[in-house]
Amino acid sequence: MIKVIRQWTSKVILIALMLIAIEVPPMAVNFALRYSKTNQLIVDGFMALFIGLMLAIIWWAHRTYEAYNQLGQPAGIKVGWIIGGYLAIILGMDVLSYLNQLIYHQTETANNAALGSILGHNEVITIVFCFSAVVLSPIAEEFIFRGTLTNMFFKRGNIWPKVILSGIVFSTGHMSTNPISFLIYAYMGMVLAYVYLRTDDIRNSIAIHMINNAIAMYVLLVQVI
Predict the structure, then answer these.
(1) Which tens digit of pLDDT belongs to each residue from 214-225?
(2) Contact at 8 Å (CB) between 193 and 146?
(3) pLDDT tens digit string along 73-97?
(4) Which long-range contacts (CB under 8 A, 24 or more apart) does 15-21 make?
(5) Which candidate, 1, 50, 18, 43, places its Cα nearest to that of 172?
(6) How many Å apart are CA 149 and CA 153, to the nearest integer?
């Protein structure tokens, strides 16, 4: 019993450390924004640091994912699951966004508002941040919230506990100001976890995440540029 408690405790601590780590790179972006109009060299340095931190997190998360992986070798890219998963995310999030606007009068989540505030101030910041949002962040977050988290807790056949846990923990990493906005990201995380667990290949959930973020960033860029 004590051994089981220690194992669970170590897993919880590891996930907590990963959640903290994924919040560190954006600090470099915030520092870069302070010098976006005055010192481009400092901006470039902070953005290089940002990319370096993201790559380090991806390496760490991938190593941890491989250590806990219950699903074995990747089963292959499933285009139908990628398309279906993305459509499920769009439809579900549209419904939840409508409820968010209806009940809380919010036209966008606090997370999207924060992302939009970063864009358009400096060309380097905008380019690097968009690249990270579309490529680096989906890879890092999928290895953490799907690859590591869903394999670390519960047995392989217990899909729904894994899906729910992944969605809840994923949403805690996004700024939510009310229960509906929390559900928006929890729902997205659950869909991504379900696709990953049903296809036995994390590349499918990464692809969906990339597509979703690419379209979201395009919409934000159109609004600010």
Answers:
(1) 999 998 888 877
(2) yes
(3) 889 999 999 999 999 999 999 999 9
(4) 15/144, 15/148, 15/149, 15/152, 15/169, 18/57, 18/60, 18/61, 18/64, 18/144, 18/148, 19/144, 19/169, 19/172, 19/173, 21/57, 21/60
(5) 18
(6) 6
